[in-house]
Structure formats: C-alpha cells, structure tokens
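User: Hello! My lab partner asked me to get a predicted holo structure for this protein. The small molecule is zinc ion, SMILES included with the sequence. Please write out the structure tokens.
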Amino acid sequence: MYARFVIILCFTCISSVSWAKDILITNIRLIDGTGTPVRIASVRLRGDRIIAVGALKVMPGDSIVDGRGQVLAPGFIDSHSHHLGYLRRNPDALATASQGITTIVIGQDGDGLPMDSLQALLSGNRFAVNIASYTGHTMLRSEVMSDDDLNRPATDVELAKMRTMLSKEMTRGSLGLSTGLEYEGAFYSSRLEVVSLARVAAEFGGRYISHIRSEDLKMDEAVEEIIEIGRLTGMPVKISHIKLAARDDWGQAPRVIARLERARAEGIDITADAYPYTFWNSTLRVLFPDRRYSDTASARLAVEKLCDPDSSMLVRYLPEPAWEGRMLGEIARIRRESPAQTLLHLVARAAEYERTHPDVDGVEAIAGKSMTAGDVAAFLAWPHTNICSDGNAGRHPRGFGSFTRVLGRQVRESKLMSLEKAVHKMTGLTARHLGIRDRGLIRPGYLADLVLFDPDRVIDRATLEDSHALSDGIISVWVNGKRVYDAGRSTGIRSGRLVTRPVSVLKKH
Ligand SMILES: [Zn+2]
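Assistant: Hello! Below are the structure tokens for the protein in complex with zinc ion.
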C-alpha cells in the first residue's frame, strides 16, 4: 500500500511540474508599446515572462497561439481606476479584461487602502488583473483627524503623524501620494500640508498624482498649485483625468496645454491622464465649488455654467431610487421647478438621508455633462497624457469601455492619433509615468501582460443606459503569462498580482 501511494504521489509531482511549455504567439502584428510602428514578429513566453521577440522558430513542445493576423500589444495599464470594489465581487475582472486592461492603479483622488491591507487582500484573493496603488492624502487625514473633523488644515502634530504613516506606506511599495483636493475631505487642507506630505513621497523616489483643487471655476489656480508642488519637490506630478468642466472655459484646452508645456520647459515633470468621455461621474455636491449647498445663486451657476441639466443623469439616488437614470432637467420638469431648484432639493434630501443613514456610503451620484469633445480630444492627444478610465462598475460607461473607446473612436473613426501612439499611451508611456518597471512593453525580460485585439473591430459598447455592455474586438488577454480572457469570456484564471514601486528606490536621506 505504502509503495503504491508513493508512486501515485510521484506521478502527481511530475505532472504538476511537467516541463512548463513555452507559449509561442505567432501570426501577429506586433505593437510593442514604445510608439514605434507595427511590425511582424512572434513572441515567446516562459512562465510569467516574455523571453523572446522576433522571427522565432517553433520549438518542440511549444504551445502555439495563432494570432490570426491580429494585433498583439502590451496589456493596458489604467493609471486611474476605482475598480477594486467591483473586483471583490467579480475577481474574474470582466470589466477590465474585456477592454484589454491588465493592471489597474488604485488609491486615487486621495482615497484608498493601506498597503498592508491590500497585500492581505491579494494574498488570499487573486484577481484577473494586477493592482498597484498610491497612498491617499484623505485616507491619511481620516485616520489622523477623524472623519467628521476634516474641514480644516491639519495641525503640526497631525501632519507629523501623517508623514510617518506615509513613510511606512512608501516602504511597502506605494507608488506615491494621491490627493483629491476638490473633495470635502481634503479641500480645506493647506498647500503647506500637501507639500509637506508630497516631500515624503519624493524622498522615497515616489510620485504625486492629483484630482486638482478645481476642474472648473478655479482651474487655472489649481493647475498652478500642482505645478508648484512639482517645482518644490522635484518629483513627477500628474493631473488626474484632466478636463475643462466650466462652460466659460470650453475650447481652452490648448491654453492649458501651453501652460503645462511651459512648466515642462522649466524642468517640471508634469503629465496628465484622461478618459474619452464628455461627462464625468461624481457627487451632486461637486457642482458647488464654493461649498454653499443651499445657496440659490450657486445652484443657478451650477446648472448654467458647470453642467448641462438636460444631458446630466442622476445615476444613483438612494432617497428616491425612481429618479435614478433620469436627467436633472427631466426631474425638474416633473417637479415643475427650475433645474437649480431641483438641484438644491436633491442635495438637501441626500444630506438628510446621510444624516439618518450614517453607515451608508455613496448616497447619490451624477454623470455630469460638462466637457466638449474638442477639449477631450486635445487632452487625449497631448504627448504627455496617458489613457485612464477613472472607472468602476457603476453607471458611467467608462468602467467598461474607456480603452476600447479610444481605439475604436479616437483612433479608427476620428484618426486623432495612430494606433501605435494610442497603444503607447495605454502601456509604455503609462508605465513610465507611474514608475512601474518590467511592464508596459513587449520586450524580453518583461512580464507577460498582453492583449490580442482586432484593430478593425475593436469598439466600446457600454453606454449610460447599458453601462456594463462588453466591448467588441478584444480577443485574448494574458496577465503574468496566463490567459485570463478569451473570446468574450473570462477563463477563470486569476493571475493578477500586487505591483509595487521598485524596492531599489531607497530613501535619499
Ligand atoms: Zn477624481
């Protein structure tokens, strides 16, 4: 009995370590992520890495993937994602995989999880996508100052605590500091506080990424603030989901870009990310830049200058779920009042709901139409902008369609940029902007995050009405050498990992 048991055990060992076959992906057009022109080549994978690229011969034992003449590119890196909540419920990551994304970057807009919680989450629970994270400024504030006391700058003692916490996060592989200065949890922080924390991230060779203090009425000042943070800290700084959301600023993207170029010429490494939609998704309260939520003049300004009520959809509204899916202007007509009055009513009722349901998060959300296609295109095309989704699995279609939308609409239909350039803005450029090594290019030694797609067919299908519709044209997706998505379906393999800042970057002093 004993001998037989041993034999069976040995067989099991042999089959599980059986000579790991190389995967040879052939018959493809290769776009390697550097921005150089498409070329004919094959790619050999061994384990989780790319080991060869070029005119490769089939070797005995190779497992061959016939690319059928389609494009193989590095897996897309989403530099601004809110998909983690979705992944906890959907570890197969259809929302991201189906648009070709292989790495998401969370900890955005000042929020996020401590790195040890993230590590613990990923050690027990693999997802079909890699995850990297920034450390959120508002998360640090909440920890140190308590959630109901954030409407002020931090004291020196609190700031010292936050600096210590951030140092710890940086040693655990955080990419840097993220802020969401337009949101209430950080809006009242001083520039001194932000710079003091940013310096900690800089000392560790980290980066700064920011939802800046205003995307509408005080956009210029907010841009100056992030430029100044880059100047003072000397580290790369990035404007999150760059946009012009005030009607009076429409068409001004070239002026903003010229300002960013001047900062770059001065030696400040400032970049941006952007998503390809003319509407955002946030709270009703961001429509009140001066934070006077019951002021009629502010509400009027919001519906006249900051969003178009007839194309801005209330996508979440727990106090009155029947309003969900309706435009702000439509609700106003039903209620027989002006859009400004309706906005005031909705905000007040949501605040009341929050008071009576203190444990409920995300009481309301609006998809606010407030950008022009021209500005969106100009920002997407700026050579220092990489593509992001800013998405989750909510009612904004960006969570399922951002990357395929750029490939289908901006590249194929509008010819805003070449396919190679667009892929670069989703891969190699993004990795460089984030300080992520060994991903973002198809190159020997790099991790095998790959996407095979049909450039003639690729397109987003998600809309405000059907925000979870899967894209067309993404054929296969590999994460760390394993195929996680194929022919419109998840394969059930969850080979994503935590991606950290390279540990070789040590604190400078
Ligand atoms: Zn944001």
